[in-house]
Amino acid sequence: MTATVVLYATSCAATVKAKSDISRIKNLLDAKRVQYEEVDLSMEPHRREAMLAGSEGLSKLPQLHVNGRLVGGADDIQEFEDWGELDAYLAGKTQEEILAAVTAAAAGFAAATPETTAAAVPAAAAAAASAAAAVAAPAAAAVVTAAAVASGAAEVEPTEPAVPEPEPAIPQAAASAAEAPVAAEQPAAAEQPAAAEQLKAEAQPAEQQAEQEQQEEPAAQLQQEEQEEKETAAAEATAAAAARAADAALLPPGSLGPRGTPVATAELPSLEAFWRNYMSTDTPVVVMGAMEDWPALTRWCDPAYLVAVAGPRTVPVEVGEHYLAEGWGQQLMTLQQFVERHIAPGAAGTQGGTQGGTQGGSGSPGGSGGQGGGPRGGQQHEGEPQQGSEEEGHTEAVPKQQSVHQQPEQQEPPPPQQPAQHEAQQRTSLAAGRGYLAQHPLFDQIPSLAADIREPPYCVLGEGEVQSINAWFGPPGTVTPLHTDPHPNLLCQAAGRKYVRLYSPAHTQAMYPHAEGMHTNTGQVDVDEPDHERHPLFAAAPFQDCVLEPGHMLFIPPGWWHYVKSTTVSFSVSFWWR
Q1: What is the pLDDT of residues 390-447, one digit of tens each?
Q2: Geometric angle at alpha carbon 96, from 94 and 97, rounded to 5°
Q3: pTM assigned to the model
Q4: Cβ(477)–Cβ(431) below 8 Å
Q5: Phi and psi dihedrals of 565, rounded to 5?
Q6: 289 and 237 in a common domain
Q7: DSSP class per residue in 30-66
Q8: Angle at CA 47, nearest 5°, toward 43 and 48?
Q9: What kind and span of H or E run contains 389?
Q10: Taking the CB of residue 33, how many other CB atoms lie within 10 A of it?
Q11: Fewer CB near the terminus (10 Å): N or C of the chain?
Q12: Are 270 and 18 in contact (CB under 8 A)?
């Protein structure tokens, strides 16, 4: 009976290795002309249960199954092929059957080995004895000949060339002459091993020293590398501590402490794992390692690059604390003007500086990604006059709820303020003049910047239709108030740092959403300065929070309330999809 071979794979492999593993198994099966079924779990998710049943719960792809049982992944299959066992597996034999066959073969080999060895040893010994005899024979003959010549007592047949018989008149001299070379040869032969031993003894210290140096060199190099790693780790820890200290001055009360829970993290999960563990369960997660191929990670740290690429392009800039605050408005200006007014001054003199580069916003507070509807992008209504006019690429806008007055008459100087009152007024003044390029489809407008980003692979899940891709670029302290979004959102941090706090939809009542108007998806609570008398439920609402670093990708499930605040000059990209 032919075995049933099934390859469980996916057409949406999230990593290059996963794609390579699938190809390796298919090429090997094709080379063996094996008939198999390939199951694409991204297209047939209902087949996952059969795979898990045959693999005892193992979910990593790809997997090769034979007769409903797991054989292994790509590395396992290649190992079985190298050991000559793959054909047996593909024929439907179990691991126990294959192991029994291998054991029997090994036992048969072991049984045959003693006889072969017993026969081979005498033969080898005889050959060695013959060789030794052949070597020793000429030496023995030479000794006999010399003795015969010296004593004259032995009859030795002459060999060619013939040796003349010694003269009778000088037998004693001949004996002495024959003995002298032999006696001279004996010390010389004894001196040769001694000289060799002496040379060897002299060479040993040099060899030992060289060997010791060879051993010490990697050890010294390893020690140096360890020291450099320690210094790097210490420098990173110091920088991280300084960053946390800078962040702490900007974060709302209770942030990153025992009141909240850290957002879960995952190192480049597969599409299947992302869907199973996070998307299908509406669980926030910070994905690591999914933005390593973004050129933006190295380019957008420098505002000069952004000016060089898109400086003359006109963009809408929000000016004010946030879209719910008094005096908030929008201005049109070039990207270069935005950088010069709001990014460069912030980078030079605002707390948080440009450490970590640039960073940006969150998901939209309303509507559909800033494209028609919602506080951002939909604030300007039909029939309402445009605030400001564009002249020579420079646009000034009058903030809402503010009018232009003539120069006021001189008045008496106001009384001196208390320090706390002055500090609060200064913060309000700084926030009122803060600019934020928020929720803007910048990448449709400037394709050269679009080339610096990559659509996350997880956007293929669900219906796989991206709704909007928006830019969020601003100085430290830019805020997006507490709000919800209707779609899954991947907030990708390209540069800088950003604090995000999330509340489950189960606690919507504690967010005190606006009852009517265009802000029904926005809470009334000011997370930075909550009014517990007006909003008593908010203090007890549990939350998750995190600080996004460059290369982090935060998944915000639809309906989750989130508050976002940049702690440095910042640039991020949000992907909405369904």
Answers
A1: 333 344 443 433 333 334 444 455 555 555 444 444 445 456 689 999 999 999 999 9
A2: 65
A3: 0.54
A4: yes
A5: -145, 125
A6: no
A7: HHTT---EEEETTT-GGGHHHHHHHTTT---S-EEEE
A8: 100
A9: strand 389-391
A10: 6
A11: N
A12: yes
